[in-house]
Amino acid sequence: MILVDGSMGEGGGQILRSAITISTLIGKPVEVINIRSNRKDPGLKQQHVSTIQLISKLFDINIENVAVGAKWIKFKAHKNLEIASVNSNLVIDIGTAGSIPLLLQTIIPIISIFQKNLTLRIQGGTDVKYSPTIDYIKYVLREILSRIGIIFDINVIKRGFYPNGQGIVDVQIEKISELHTIEFCNFKDTQPNIISIAGKLPRHVPDRQIGYAITTLEKRGIKPIKHKSTIETAESPGSSILVYSTSESGMYLGADSIGEKGIKAETIGYNAATKFISDYESRVCIDQFLADMLVLPLSFVKGGSKYKISTVTNHLTTNLELIKRINGLDYSINKVGEKEFIVSITGRPLI
Predict the structure, then answer these.
(1) Catalytic: 48?
(2) What are the residue ranges of CATH 3.30.110 in the chain?
(3) Is the peptide bond before 163 cis (omega within 30 degrees of 0)?
């Protein structure tokens, strides 16, 4: 059994998600200790419990100590795993405003790389703190994973904001035909898009978010090509905004921001635009949050991949080192400019 210390590096939930994903794919059991030990509320959250239970159900994997607040778990994956005989249209209820996007980050690569088609309906939080928004998953992560060969589609039925959650998202995951390497190192100017949404709030809230985001971008000479402001169905009030740019030339930048009580809508729009500007003006191809999301799928692609980023985060280095320890990933990070780094990854395919 592989022992994974959840306190390594940034010490957050990404270590757990990566460990159980790799364990499932390579068919080796893991024990994860000190789970989320660097957080003020350590241990498993409901979203982690739901994710582990779903994988356990799909692949008939024995699990131990999987409960909210648990500081350790045993996840007993084994060789020759197969999708269990379950309904192809599953409904997963996280039960709180737990992050649907973080659950999807774990589930999608596993199902796709195992060459299975699966339809899921997931209930929980779509736009919550400490997580990418569901729009980021739909418009940024989905696009770049398709370049690798991992195909999925998302339909947001209802938004789920903190604290009630109860958002509803339908997800269709397709089995892969082939995984591809990527090389996204040449920046090309691409005008961004903006999506601003709110639920159970006045119409002016998403309009003010998007208005200030546009103003902030245009002050730096960046003119959005498309923008959309909408009111959507939700159980509790909330809002979010995404500024993003994707291109077949190899540019995938996204920056989102979540509305919070007591914070002006203009500030939410400004925050998202400022994050986008930081990566855009650094002339990189992959945003700092996407950088660590790519590590795991690329670790199973035969050959070498490269992408340019502006910031080497603890999330990225932790994920790289964890996967190297478990599955022999080769990687390097080389500085090529004042605010530019090239991440190189050589994968180790399953077959």
Answers:
(1) no
(2) 1-83
(3) yes
**Residue 68: DSSP 8-state:** T
What are the residue ranges of CATH 3.30.360.20 in the chain? 188-281
Q: Which residues of 270-309 are buried (b: 16+ CB within 10 A; e: fewer)?
A: bbbbbbbbbbbebbbbbbbbbbbbbbbbbbbbeeebbbbb
In a structure prediction context, what are the per-residue pLDDT tens digits for the chain, which is 351 residues long? 899 999 998 888 899 999 999 999 999 999 999 999 888 889 999 889 999 999 998 888 999 999 999 999 999 998 877 766 555 568 889 877 789 999 999 999 999 988 888 899 999 999 999 899 999 999 999 999 999 999 999 999 999 998 888 999 999 999 888 899 999 999 988 899 999 999 999 999 999 999 999 999 999 999 999 999 999 999 999 999 999 999 988 899 999 999 999 999 999 999 999 999 999 999 999 999 999 999 999 999 999 999 999 999 999 999 999 999 998 889 999 999 888 999 999 998 876
pTM: 0.94
**What CATH superfamily classification does 188-281 receive?**
RNA 3'-terminal phosphate cyclase, insert domain (3.30.360.20)
Class for the domain spanning 1-83: alpha beta
Contact at 8 Å (CB) between 17 and 26? no
